[in-house]
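Ticket #4471: structure output looks truncated?

Reporter: J.K.
Steps to reproduce: submitted the chain below (1176 residues) through the standard prediction queue, then opened the result file.
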Amino acid sequence: MFGRHPLAPPRPHAIKRKQGNEEVSAESSNAAKKQRKSTPQSQASSVDDQDLSNDAVADPGSSGKSKAVAKASKKGKQKAADTERPIWPEYFNELFKIYKALNTVIAFCSSRQQIATTFSVVRTSVERILRKPLELAQVAEIKAILPDLIRFAYTPASQIRVHSDRTSGISSNSKDRAESPDPYEAFSLKSGRSDEQVLVLEFVEKVKLQRPDLDYNPIFSAPLLSPADVKKLIEKRNERFQLAVDELILACQAMETPEDPVGLVQKAARDHIQLDPTLPTEQPAPSHHFISTDSRPSIEDVIAEIEGGEEYRDQIVFRKIFDTKEPQYGSSLVVTTLLEGPGFDQSVSIVGLTTPLSDSISAGLNLSMSVTKLYSHQAKAINALREGKHVIVSTGTASGKSIIYQVPLLSMLEEDRDTTAMFIFPTKALAQDQKAALEHLLARCPGLEDVKVATYDGDTAMNKRQGIRETASVIFTNFDMIHVSILPHEDTWRRFLKNMKLLVVDELHYYNGTLGCHTAWIMRRLRRVCAALGNRRTQFVSCSATIGQPAIHMKSIFGIEDIEVVTEDGSPAGRKDFLVWSPPLVDQLKANGQRASSLTEACTLFKFLIAKGVKTILFCKVGNDDTYVVNPLKIRKTCELAMKTVRAQIAADGRTDLLDRVRAYRGGYSQQDRREIEKQAFSGKLLGIVATNALELGINIGSLDAVVMLGFPFSVASLRQQAGRAGRRLQDSLAVMVADNFPLDQHFVQNPNEIWDSPMADLIVDLENEVILEGHLQCAADEMPILPKNDEPYIGHNFKALCDKKLIKDKEGWYHTHPNFKPRPASHVAIRGAQDVKYSIMDITDRDTDGRVVIIEEIEVYRALFEIYEGGIFMHQGDTYLVNEVSHDERCARVVKTDVSWLTTPRDYTDIDPVETSRIRAIRGSPHRAYFGKITVKTVVFGFFKVRNNSILDSVDLDTPPFERETVGMWINVPSSVLDLMRRKGLSPAEAIHAAEHTVLNMSPLYAFATDGDIKTECKIPEKEYAAKESNRKRPARLIFYDGSGKCTGVSAKAFDHTSDLLLQALERLEACQCETGCPSCIEAANCRSGYLVTNKLGAKLVLQSILDLPIDEDALPDVDPEVAFNMPETVVEATSVKTRTKIEVEDLEDVQVENEAGEALHPDGAALTRTLRIR
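Returned output as attached by the reporter:
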């Protein structure tokens, strides 16, 4: 675990490899060509890597020098003498000949993708080249020299086949699907044995086919390496072997007692000679270790063991230690209560309250939670509530916030049994968790045992809802139910609402952006109805993770004053170690080479921790690893892939005792499955959970010791929230961020202190968004007619004009719902966006034997498009299922469980096109215009790739219906003059437009009050923009922004109202940013679909300058070498006009009068203007 092979060469400084100026210049030129969008990892992913010389590699003879070194020496351009290569023993010369033959055959097989690199296939070809037998021992010796670069191991035959043995059962609907013959058919278990094994020989370092100059388009076909690329690949790997041998010989010579390098290799090779695992041998019994989490090692010892392990390669690039924090208790008053009676013969001290608690409540706290003292933040909040104030508590994760609203509720119920309370939680799982905790507390409070607590959400049976309305004292619900069920039927809820004294909103930071705007208006509607029923005494409590401006955020959501803010956390915390983990280089001698898979690294670390008894959760996000050859897949698939990887690693280690102690947890699982997993976690049965951000919120899954985050989770707030899930009071804990190869991750690898030193961003709630406000006014008028003078305290003072325009006013001045929203206005206002139709995933594996069909999951239609297609692989709890049939009429997919090592990734494209203009807006100081209107988003999945270990095995065509949705947005056409300029300067218009869109998107929260996902743009993907073959799909040259799919929330309209300021601020941000090629502060957006690979900072600046009609000094732009200039086929064309709904007046025209040099007024859209402008 985490170590280096004994024969692995020292760190890459043992041999200094100097190059002459000419070679360095050529290398720089190639690097500049690839500078276009490269992180260090993506630079290394191309075949034409210049870390190693491209010169032909000589057989190292007595001269001891390679041709590259000899050539550089002849030119006399080296500044320092080269280190002499050592003389090789003849044994290594012979082994090198074998290696070159192996390298040639494997490279050829890899270039064809469809040829299996099994030892039997490779052996035959190599023996023909060498004209002598190839022995296993010789391959094992090569493996010993390059232990990290060569894989030589047995693999189950079923896992190397391209097609599943269940493919024959696929529905006849897919008979026309083009599927390649299976090149692995030779290993198709003809013997009938299910355990048949195949010996595989391959290079671990995969060729990621991402270079723009490869002669294929991976979106439309499976890639092949060109002969020239194969030759370069062979040369690089040959030289890598030479360097490894050189390092080994020099290392042996440097020892105090020199070692024989040949003997070392032969000795180490014994561990690499492969034996068929199916042959009868004495095998050790499976491991069944007893793991106790109570006696686990300290985190400091765990980290030390990792760093001291054989396979550790300096992955930890940053470590921050948070010291132990002692608890701080309230000190206002100590209230001691002597409890009498059975089970109550003890004294209970509740520290910190200004007035004493009753005996019953004190007993309940002590018996249920062993609470005798309140932390300072708990005491301060409870005291404020008892004084009649509203309270927001913004403290760290697991700081005991629940008790803050539980204690006042118990006191209210003791005083008045008619009291009701409403607890609002963002997820059903969190509500269930908190309901159980409250019921546990009530059961231990004498006199309160019979208080009825109920859940009222979408899963609540219809026949139980009336009883809840009539008898429940406390309900656990969510804003969705308040919006669509409680407020529209307020007449049936009057008992509850009239007596409601306490309303709690937990995880208040969750309600942000568009969702926060909706919840703010729902809360005001609820307060309005309660006031009409005579209830103006409800107190409001909200709990949140640490956020900026908590009082302002609570006021925005609730619309109330007199808020007590509690931010000083008095809860204890144990020592916490935070690590940034950067996956190591696959080849340690290539400084900018390919790095190991972040997913594999995270899973390996996760497995190591749970094997030590460290209870760990692995948070997954969108990644860019094995399955992400074409497009990053969704977070849920990442979770399943991680689970599959973990299970495979555990099984390979023989730790079968751990298999049942690890589970995956994500959205989409059935309610029953989720409750079972939560129960197992809380009970301590589970040692590890692989999860999405569904567990980021405060669901009680028991105490965790460690958190591993696969990739930066899009925001600093989310990272801190996830990291906070680990830690038990004063117990030490660990949080690790395993960096992905996205620029945002790499930014924090280089600047890790920003994670903890940067201030928390303020949360956004836009109460001026008229699109959202109109919908809630329609709902409010249906609940009770609106009278402006009465309703101003709840709705504000700027809504009357909107009521006059959108609602129906009667003779007495009351406003009523417009008939277009009748009979159920709430159904027209989707607070979480469009409510997607769901597809059922039906497991029919056992249908033929026992007739059993099990629905294993339900997924939204937008996910179904990308995850269920006939012949594809669907993943559930880390298991793979082959999709046999998809019925769009029945909205279901039938799958069978199968054991394959390959996955599938869709081949798709998305077109985002404006189809109708409804508004036109002038851009200050410019003849150009911004447009707003209807936009269609069409996605087509036309096939899929079969992928294994980052290699495409097969390309399959599909005929599926397009997924189309309609939304609204804004767009700005890019002037043709700047397109021509960029082409002259060798800049890619696609990169420039994409980067400009990101920059504007990053500034949109200032004007549109938008959060991630509220406004989207069209991201450019490298597989299309850098394809050598010309595509028929040309994208119009425009910046385009639209409301998130199906939302139509008005956020893009808000941005459109501030177009001029938004563009200017974006340009100023670009010019002020000190980075060279782009960073998260300027052109990189966290949710970019393409991983920000297709961007160019200079191009973005030119695009924004041209739209704003600011002068561009062409002579000041750097000249680009024609050989380095972007010369791919054009994918962007000049944008054309979009039809308008009716005659439209240009908004904000009073700010600018545009004339040409002759003083003649131009057409309002400014389309014909190409000359310098005079602005009046």
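Triage note (M.O.): checked the attachment and the full token line is present. The chain has a mean pLDDT of 78.
Status: closed, working as intended.
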